[in-house]
Design a protein that fits this description.
By secondary structure, the chain is of the alpha+beta class. Helices cover 32% and strands 22% of the residues.
């Protein structure tokens, strides 16, 4: 039974990575640059960094779910279509 579950996780990981969403893949330590970025606003804290694959948001980061009035129209449109 455990082997079946591990096989399912491996299949899902492969499928998500193939579709461009490597969310279950481990982060390569050598791909993380030393510079981290921090956001602290309205009791929201987030941390992330750039890698070869793109921007990674670290665990325990928070987001503001409500739309900000200062958000650019491009950002608002992109967020609504995602």
């Amino acid at each position: 039974m455990e082997a079946d579950l591990l096989d399912n996780v491996e299949t899902i990981t492969t499928l998500l990575t193939t579709l461009g969403y490597p969310i279950l893949e481990a982060i390569k330590k050598n791909s993380i640059k030393s510079k981290n970025y921090y956001i602290q606003k309205k009791n929201i804290n987030a941390t992330g960094t750039y890698t070869e694959e793109g921007f990674i948001v670290f665990k325990d980061s928070q987001v503001l779910l409500a739309k900000s009035q200062s958000a650019d129209n491009h950002i608002t449109t992109q967020r609504e279509t995602s």
